[in-house]
Structures are given as C-alpha cells and as structure tokens.
Design brief:
The chain is mainly β. It is built from 4 helices and 26 strands.
C-alpha cells in the first residue's frame, strides 16, 4: 500500500459516515449488483485472510500489529493462532503482512509469515502448528528463513506470500524500498531483492535456510538466484489462478496497474518500474536490463482513487455473476470491480463494478471452499472489518 497521508485524510472524511456505509456495503438502488458484502467480524487492522489445506472449518485473519486470529465456521475463537507482536515494527505500511500454508500443511504443520521486523527489514519466518491443536501455532518453533534489508524508508514492503499451484514453491512480493532517491532504483537492480517477486523452496538446503529452484531465471547468471520477476514498485497483493498469476502493483502518483500472465511467462520479466508507471514513461533515463512487459489494466487517480488492492479470480459457485472474473479494488474509494482476462490475447474483458464498496479496503483472501473475503480498516485507529462476498 502507499500514500499514508491520503489514508489519514480519508479516515477523517469517512469516520462520521462509516457506520452507514458498513451496514449497507453496496449503494442503495445499485443496478445489477453482482454481489453484496456480509460482515464476518471486527479485528485490529486486518490486512489479509487465508485458509489452510486440510482445515476446512478454519479461517485465519492477519492483523497488522502482529497477531493472526483464527475463526471456526466464521466464529472467532477466544485465542490467537499466533502472536508475534514483539517481533515486528508497526504500523503505517509496516507490520505483519501475510501468511501462507504449504500444500502439505495438514501433515507437516509448517506455515510461513512475512512481516517487518524491529529494524524495519522485511522478514520471512517459518513456524509450526502446535501439536494436538490445529487452532494454535507454536511461537517457540520460529525459524528465520530470509531477511531483506529495507533501510531508509518505512514504506513499500510488499509482503504477499503464496505457494505456487502445482510446484510447492513459495512466492513472495517485495516492494522497491519506498521513498528512496533515485526513485525505484532497487526495482531494476538484479542484485537487490526489493521491487521483485521472489521464488524459493523454503526448507533448509545445503546448509542454508532455504533452497533455490534451479529453474529460477538468474541461477548461474548475473543477478540474485531468488528473483523470479522484477521491475515492480509495491506489489502489495498478488494471486494465482491455476497456471496464471495476477500482480496488482501500486503506482507512484498517476497510474495503478494490474499484470496478468501465465505463471511461467513471468520468469525473468521486467514489469517496467521505474522506467514506466503503468503504460506511461516515468524515468526513461534508467531502463531495466530487459524490455518492459506492460500491464493488462491501468487506471488513473480520478474520483479519489489512490492505490490498487489486488484480489482473486472467483470460483465460488455461490457467486454466479462473478464466476471466472478477477476481483480488485482501491484503497481510497473502496470500490470493488471485476473483469475477465482472456487467456489468448491477455486482454481485459468486461471491466465493471460489483456493486460493493468498502472504504479503506486493505486486502482480499480466500476461504477453504473458495469464498472471497475482504479486509478493511475503519475510521478509528484500532479496528477494522472482515467481510465475505455473497450473492446480491
């Protein structure tokens, strides 16, 4: 995410009307709404929602100050799944950012979290599920996997974690380092892990904390072996849909962008920042090592829009009007929209509003049966909501 001053102004603006908005979720009288939002619960700055393989009744909510709450059948339990608030720096754009469960989680009990540590660096840690209790992780099992130095600024941390479909590998987004000059420099530097999508095998290997897939694009070549794609400003959220990946990259000051490609085709791709912001030239004096790949969709900041929040392709049969469509929203307006990405031409088909608006939208998440969840902060400093999309 980005633009903290914009967020604060918006908080003050919506504070008086937030109760009305949250009770309605969609504009009264909206024509042909695709969905509505059902409030699941109130949390402390929720940023992400996830489910775990083999745990069909459980849902996990990532709270920015450092806790992961656990819900059973959408009812919050009286204890946290994991509390690492003593390990992190928060808040603004820092904090506990994401959680991911590997495909073998039901047997292995391994899970991974991304956060900004006490020094402000972006950290990836492994924890284990507590023996005999699927609703708790063991904080004593912590193993540090990767630490990415993030000096000079508190913003642009990225932090999304996802296991790739079919490969069991862990993908991680990392922002470009924030308010640094020259702007966006780390994103094009193949010796720097910032401004990238990384891909690793998160188990110890060869005396190191993680392994490198030999098919990563810079193995045996100049550049860090962990890098899978580069040229990103702040890829706050990305997601997989079968063999495709959608990356929502927060823009600088004019354009927001969504990249949507076959997963193996982003290998070694330069997404253009800082040479380009969206499709527009930003700093043509510093092109990346490779020609840029342009986004499938961009939008400007008209109407108060400020930062794209990426979601998921819908496969929940309870949302028939949205099946096969990719969801995304904007932090400032809260409008949630959808489009279909054509497989052959990589073009956007039928971009349209869903009829749902959630002010201060902060993230999306998937439930164990493919349900779509949304997280948002509200006009206060300590609360936020998790909602689920339902048929209108």
């Amino acid at each position: 995410m980005d633009k903290q001053r914009t967020i604060e102004r918006l908080r003050r603006h919506v504070a008086g009307a937030i109760g009305i908005l949250l009770s309605a979720f969609a504009a009264p009288g909206a024509l042909a709404a695709d969905a509505r939002a059902v409030l699941v619960g109130t949390f402390d700055h929720p940023l992400y929602v996830a489910s775990a393989p083999g745990q069909p009744q459980l849902l996990f909510v990532v709270e920015q100050p450092g806790r992961i709450q656990v819900l059973q059948d959408e009812v919050r339990l009286d204890h946290a799944f994991l509390d690492i608030s003593d390990l992190i720096s928060c808040c603004g754009e820092r904090g506990l950012l994401s959680i991911a469960f590997p495909p073998d989680y039901d047997a292995s009990g391994r899970l991974y979290v991304a956060f900004t540590n006490g020094a402000g660096d972006v950290e990836l840690d492994e924890f284990l599920r507590q023996a005999g209790d699927a609703t708790r992780a063991d904080p004593a099992s912590r193993r540090i996997v990767l630490v990415i130095p993030h000096p000079g600024a508190a913003n642009h941390n990225g932090g999304q974690l996802q296991f790739g479909p079919g490969d069991g590998l862990l993908y991680m987004s990392v922002g470009d380092g924030g308010s640094l000059l020259p702007r966006g420099e780390p994103a094009r530097d193949l010796e720097d892990l910032r401004g990238k999508i990384l891909r690793i095998r998160p188990l110890p290997s060869g005396g190191k904390a993680y392994g490198i897939p030999i098919s990563n694009p810079y193995v045996g070549k100049p550049g860090r072996d962990e890098i899978y794609a580069y040229g990103l400003r702040n890829p706050w959220r990305f997601s997989f849909d079968d063999r495709r990946v959608a990356i929502a990259d927060v823009g600088q000051g004019s354009w927001e962008e969504i990249n949507f490609l076959i997963t193996n085709r982003i290998k070694g791709v330069n997404f253009g920042w800082p040479q380009y912001e969206g499709n527009a030239v930003f700093d043509n004096t510093r092109p990346g090592p490779d020609p840029p790949t342009f986004p499938i969709l961009t939008y400007d900041h008209n109407g108060g829009r400020c930062a794209v929040i990426g979601g998921y392709v819908v496969h929940d049969s309870n949302l028939p009007r949205l099946l096969g469509r990719y969801l995304y929203g904007d932090l400032c307006t809260g409008e949630i929209r959808s489009f279909r990405a054509s497989a052959g031409t990589q073009k956007v088909v039928g971009d349209r509003p869903t009829g749902v608006t959630l002010p201060l939208l902060s993230g999306f998440g998937l439930g164990p049966q493919g349900q779509i969840y949304m997280t948002q902060t509200t006009g206060t400093e300590t609360t936020g909501n998790v909602s689920r999309l339902a048929a209108p």
